[in-house]
Sequence to fold (314 residues):
Amino acid sequence: MSRTAGRVQAAEAGGLTVLRGAARVAGLLVVVVGLGSAVSGCSGIPAGPVASDPAVTPTPPASAVAQAGSPGTTATRVGDATAAPEWLGTRVLPVRSGGFAAARDTPPELRNRSIITVDHLPPPPDGRFHATIEAVPAGVLARSSWTNRCPVAGADLRYLTVSFRGFDGRAHTGELLVHARVAADLVTVFGRLFAADFPIERMRISSIAELNAPPTGDTNTTEAFACRPVRGSTVWSQHAYGLAVDVNPFHNPYHKGPVVLPELASAYLDRARARPGMIQPGGPAVRAFTAIGWPWGGHYRSLKDYMHFSATGR
Fold:
């Protein structure tokens, strides 16, 4: 999970056969899901059950795909998306005694946030949906927030790669760490979001350093696993088990009293003004997660965690 999502702990109190003992042996477990045709336009997912599952498309396992590093982008505009402001992620906010930075007005550049995705993994060459599920490669586990102090064994996690649609309209490849027992369900979820053209800005695994970095209030990484307890508690977050996902945190902030996370996302507390990337009641994201039995944090009563879905409802 992103450092913002990792700090949002107060709100948290099949298709795949899971091999319990054998899963501790590294290796590819499951191959891939692909949509039968390229997706274009702004079509939504039907409100009722999906008629059929996507067709299987062969895709190399994630460990066999060389990462593209952190390339820059020379484009300044792709469709309605623009390059990220040069200051994004660099302006550290002062943290108050409660452990959070104060909520601030959203900068004009981010009030209708639509940023070109920088590819860290090779995008799908055919523009279609692809996904892989495999045991977590040692290098991936090492750059995540997992340690042997976490409440879940590394062998019980899975490394997912899934295609997602960026705000630039292009198909990209994201990565997630999740619990083995929910991996196949989450592939289904992100396949449905891709089919609905629901835009996602960034989907990467965060390191311990990134998770604990000082807040800049402008992060927007869609993530699942983060080895952290609920803030101010010794109880582990659902993210620490790989059983929760946060989607587009900036477009879908956490809000309780004066606390807004990310701190610069206050413009997105106005849920009546729908903008791309926002999770709305009855929208494609809520429908996709509800279909696998995952409640939405936007339905919480004591607070709102618009980014958050979990297997347990916490």
